[in-house]
Amino acid sequence: MDLVLLAAELASFGLQQTVAVALASQGEVITEKSGILNIGIQGTIIMAAFAAALTNVYFEPSMGAYSPLMGVLAGMAVGAFVNFVFAFLSTKLNVDQVIAGFGLQLFAIGVTMTLLGMHVEGSFYDGTPLANTIPSLAVLQTPLLAVPVRYMYAVMFLLPLLVYLVLYRTKFGLHIRAAGENPKAAEVGGVNVGVTRMLATSLGGVFVGLAGAYLTVDLNSSYTTTFVAGITASVGFIAIAAVVAGAWKPAYVFGVALIFGFSLALISVFGQTSGWTYYVLTMVPYMITVATLAIASKRLRPPTALGSPYTKE
Amino acid sequence: MKGESPRGVVGATLIAAVPQIVALLLGLVAASLLILAAGYNPLVVFGTLFRSALETPSGQASVLTYTGIYTLTAIAFLVPGKASIWNVGANGQVYLGGIVAGVVAIYLPLPPILWPIAAIVLACVAGGIWGLVPGLLEAYRNASAIVTTIMMNYIAVALIDYMILGVIVIKVPTVAQYNDVVISQGAMIPTLPYFSSSIMVVVAVLVAIGTLYLLQKTTLGYRIRATGLGRQPAEAKGINPRTSKAMAMFLGGAIAGLAGAGDVLGVGHSCGTVACLQTDWAGGWFFGEGFAGMAAALVAANNPVGSIFSAAFFAVLVSGSSAVFTNFSGLNLYFFYAVQGLIVAFMAAPYLSKRIIGLVRGRRWT
Is B339's CB within 8 Å of A111's CB? Predict the structure, then answer.
């Protein structure tokens, strides 16, 4: 196989597969830094993806080519809302966050697929690709292959910087980290831990929702642009693994997301090969994830209060 | 509990079960709202669901089969749970057990009786190893089993797809596609009298009782429970929490593997072929056996014997749901997963249930 073509294909598919993991993992970094462990971001992604597709179709007649923009906004809003509900349950009702996270994921699958079955609106219910999607920013013409450059790539590369600035250069970021490390001390220092956690989780939800919107109004794992069953594949869980393996540091997490994203793309690049290689390639991303966690976890220190509810005394 | 009458013990158990029941009811209420949104009367829908599951022969067989499977996957979740390790990979462990049982049943002819037993034992070992890997990674490498067991699920799917589509379908001459693979009669496990469901439900009940005994009365059970108290308390009791965690995961995986073997080797829901392994992967979502078992374990507050009843409840829901989506267009199987997710979410909030119970008793919210 031609090496240049191979490199171009790998770059093209790799970046496409990385976007959702990268965006969702940055959102989860903010969430987890505040002490909330949302293991169910897969559920947030699914609902945001569905909302984005629905909104896109709804605004198609009135906004034409700009309807994907509304889809993206809807995805971000739904992401923020779902994560807010999760944070509310975690801070106000002291739910077990792991259980609630899986509940969220199951519910999200169930409710979106039930709504999909009701055929209330538009064409996307039967799997037809959306009429309007986000156009490419540019197309790089290599000798053998055109590599599209998407707007979301820019967002994906800039987001870790933004998350870093929020977490380490603002007062809000300081509050988030205090709530996640030592909520008691934070409360004494005048930080409202509950509110901070809810705000941080909702802000994280904006980016998790953006990942969901990317999957329907831009591209998804099966390279269709609409909401279909199984659309999120394993994005949410891989994003959570990236947060752990990236030691909760935005830049590292992005680096790990790139590795995971490119490993997910292997199947698209080499997938045509028949026989056992096809199946091995489908396993590789998950093996890499497990191996990364096995190597990295030993030395890592999560935010001290991660996953444990905080009650005022 | 000292000096209490048996009646007092039963009463205390019932009171302890109230938050669980409230969560179940909240889940059903929320489900009713979903049904209303779909434009149907919830009472009619649930009536159809329960009648189809409990009054038709196929419904009854399905309820029994799923009760067995969910009880086993509930135990696969709760045994590691007692050692405070999250086994959310029962799905993958079921697949591994199922495919190993299937391979033995297709390729390894043995005398009657011995054949299914060998298949089941190997299935348990396979499921156990699939659980042991994340168990060891958490115990010795600090890698959270929540994430690694999920990853092991995806690896298991690729593995069974390869075994079924890449090996069995190609190598067995009489097979054109995967659901043609019929397990030989000699390798099947016996069927219950009166119902067309395998004896796995009986096995599952026995396993549940055995698990209760194991956890409460044996050294291994004591080690597992002590590990659940935390690392320092366990070490203070002279227990190595690492080996107990790994053991608990092996046990959980082995029991899930048993569920997989029962799925493939027993009649029930269109099974008796390796094809049934793919039914709960259909559509590309993860749901089915693993998560239903987790929900059942949570509803039963991680009590193995209680899990039989909560498993039966979810078995009724899933068995009746096919009648729901044939009779009410717009509702589909996924509706059942929404209900299940809601129940799990409410289960996570015993605090909420306690508040509601307080409200019912006439206290104010806060």
Answer: no
